[in-house]
Write a structure and sequence with these properties.
about 220 residues, 7-stranded antiparallel β-sheet, 4-stranded antiparallel β-sheet, disordered N terminus, about 40% strand, about 15% helix, 2 domains, Nuclear Transport Factor 2, Chain: A, alpha+beta
Length: about 220
């Protein structure tokens, strides 16, 4: 983690990454300040296993993809050594997950990095934890198309909103009339629902803290 923090402090941004890999195909955040994807390049010699390689790569170039000094990278899954595949990290701020902010590093069979994919996660956070769990569940239930049924599952975390990270309650609720299974992210300061997805339709996340996609209206 020390290497990751030092690299981020040195300011390895999109320009530095592009200079290192001029042939890479890049995807940028709307602001242009961070990358959200890279392919068509090869970064080898960083480690003997996919996990070590991915961590070393992000220690050097993570700043280009918005990995800031205050973020911790928690390993969620990794391809076995000697096999091409993905290494997935969950971003955490203050010990809480950034929902929808996972960083996926693709490696080839020789543990060289060949792809990066992530969402845009701004470095700045704003807002306070003012909303109690019960109020967050009520706010989520009020915007669902059916009547809430059963016990809600909740988790605290962060969600990117524009150029800032907001504290949120993640609320999973089932409904009846009509039947549904919903995931909502409720702003922990304002009580506004920032995200909602039908888990029966959207692809379910892999095991671990929940994540999600865009707000559905």
């Amino acid at each position: 983690m020390t290497a990751l923090i030092l690299a981020a402090l040195l300011g390895h941004g999109p320009a530095e990454f592009q200079a290192a890999f001029p042939a890479a195909t890049l995807s940028r955040a709307p602001s242009g300040e961070r990358l959200t994807g890279a392919s068509g390049f090869e970064a080898g010699g960083l480690g003997r296993t996919p996990v070590r390689t991915a961590r070393a790569f992000l220690a050097r170039y993570g700043g280009a993809f918005g990995v800031s000094p205050r973020q911790e990278l928690r390993l969620l899954s990794a391809t076995p050594a000697g096999r091409p595949g993905a290494v997935r990290f969950e971003r955490r701020v203050g010990g809480l997950p950034v929902f929808g902010g996972d960083v996926v590093v693709g490696v080839d069979g020789h543990a060289a990095v060949v792809l990066v994919n992530t969402a845009d996660v701004p470095p700045r956070a704003s807002g306070r934890w003012r909303l109690a769990r019960k109020a967050a569940v009520a706010a989520a239930a009020a915007e669902l198309p059916g009547k809430a049924a059963g016990r809600a599952r909740t988790a605290r975390g962060w969600r990117a909103l524009g150029d800032t990270l907001r504290p949120v309650w993640r609320v999973d609720l089932a409904t009846r009339a009509p039947t549904g299974e919903w995931r909502s992210d409720v702003d922990a300061e304002t009580g506004k629902v920032l995200f909602r997805a039908d888990l029966r339709v959207d692809a379910r996340p892999p095991p671990g803290p929940p994540r999600g996609g865009p707000l559905l209206r």
